[in-house]
């Protein structure tokens, strides 16, 4: 293992590993505080979800109304009671998550996993509910056991909730002597109302997954790319319930011959029907244009139509009033927090340090970033190029490792559609050498803005001793970052567990091979590669034989230099995944501002003047939410921005005084032959995952293997299907393959 054996904790002997474990042991107080916070958050979450889940039961419903009667004498009235029961738990969990994330950090997380791995190393590998694929085909895509349980619970809730309300309504109407017509109308209207209430419970969860930098997503370590799927599932369910809610009322009003009169009704006391119609129409437009066939046919139509969520939420508040809106206000408020912060971050333009164009039609953009902006190798960003569109934001995986440098972040962009084609043409316009552009030329060509980075809170790829990285085409991008991250960590003695890595890369043509040269092979030491046990399997599916010498595929790529003494515009750290303390203060201050504005309205306006107009109070509630975020949260963001500018100024002063270069000119990449020696090529075929996993099973034995997949849905399904099949027939000496997807479709 050469010189690295004394510096790499998990490639060293047991004595060194034990010393590392002692050095990285978390203080008892911090560990206890984290467990207490976890326990409190679980307690509040279970209580909140249980209240929603069992609310359709008559017993729970009666208890809740007793709670309202006992607490409605407060300053906020019945709105305050419902706020306390359904909105406050979400905000309390957000507060506790702020504290938890502040006392935690990435290195602590990796160290805890590492120590846990050592303790369980002697135990046989086990399945995990988050990484075992139970469904691999169908409308939900690849679904883990945990996700399947969640789908079942939501399905059970909707079915049993509807059944409970129907039985209760029928029992109530049966006590009265009434005509069949009256009973039918009553059942239609009551069932419609109950469907709307169940829809409100689903709406309470709908906005949580799309809060990209949300403290809650970071707490449970679910990245936005995965959470988007949950938003899609909940969106279909919520809109189905709201559509049935409206349909049942329309049928009932049609039977009573007062359809148009009711549809245009806007009551001051009670539900405003017209507002509900407008909200439902906005929701239906978003729903229809988000269906996969429509989204693939015209993504811009889907994207622009989805901005109607503002109309949907506002007129929903008009429709139901303030106290019913509080059933779902918690999730909507957290989304407002995230959206405002993203808006502030996205207003700033970002300098592009360099741009490269590869023969396969792939671009690399390198952005300037402050050293304080955190991300990991599996992060991604949203990119806007204003010369192409002021409204379109496109997600791209990060192709650089945070260990490579503190002042830059890079992405690989494959030219596939109209937007990416325009970007390449824009970069190549009026230049004889499109492969290499100077920064002064770049800034005159394009104006870039960046949101993010987002992704997993902890670098989970560092928690497996054995890794299989499966990529399709440009899906190799995040795995270049992963490989670079592992190599740099091992060189610097940082906590890192991977020891055996197999990369399976499927590409259409061999002109995509230069993507591997984007890895900074200059930093790879042969001894380290041997210790790492890296193997690369490349499948060129649309060529029967090699078109060029394989060695030339890894040739050097041009590079640019970066002098940090120049005043640069970096990616803003004003993002939910940025500084934990500032992000926490922002969340807390905005929430306090929201409550203060509500209290001031009740004390000085609503209660003294006897305001009892439902739709108006709903509007005031939304206004207080917005004011809390913009005024109180905006003040924190302004201070945060000043702090960021001061940090950047001190950073530049340090660089100037020390004459440091942050992004150095690349030396000749003399280590490129090692990548070639580690690679095997197969032409005219696709990966046989059954054969691959069987070979690895014999080689590695009974261990936990992390399988990361980045590619099209068909590739994910193929890998997940083989993992499930292998798991069902595995023996005691076989490894457990853990499926992890890094692909997403917005």
From TrEMBL:
Residues 345-460 form the FAD-binding FR-type domain. One of its GO terms (cellular component) is plasma membrane. Signal peptide: none annotated. GO terms for molecular function: ferric-chelate reductase (NADH) activity. This is Ferric-chelate reductase (NADH). The keyword Plastid does not apply. The keyword Cytoplasm does not apply. Its EC number is 1.16.1.7. It is found in: Membrane. Its main location: membrane. PROSITE patterns: FAD_FR (PS51384). The chain crosses the membrane at residues 35-55, 75-103, 140-167, 192-210, 230-255, 267-288, 308-337, 467-487, 581-606, 618-643. The lineage of its organism: Eukaryota, Viridiplantae, Streptophyta, Embryophyta, Tracheophyta. Keywords: Membrane, Oxidoreductase, Transmembrane, Transmembrane helix. It is a multi-pass membrane protein. It comes from Opuntia streptacantha (Prickly pear cactus).
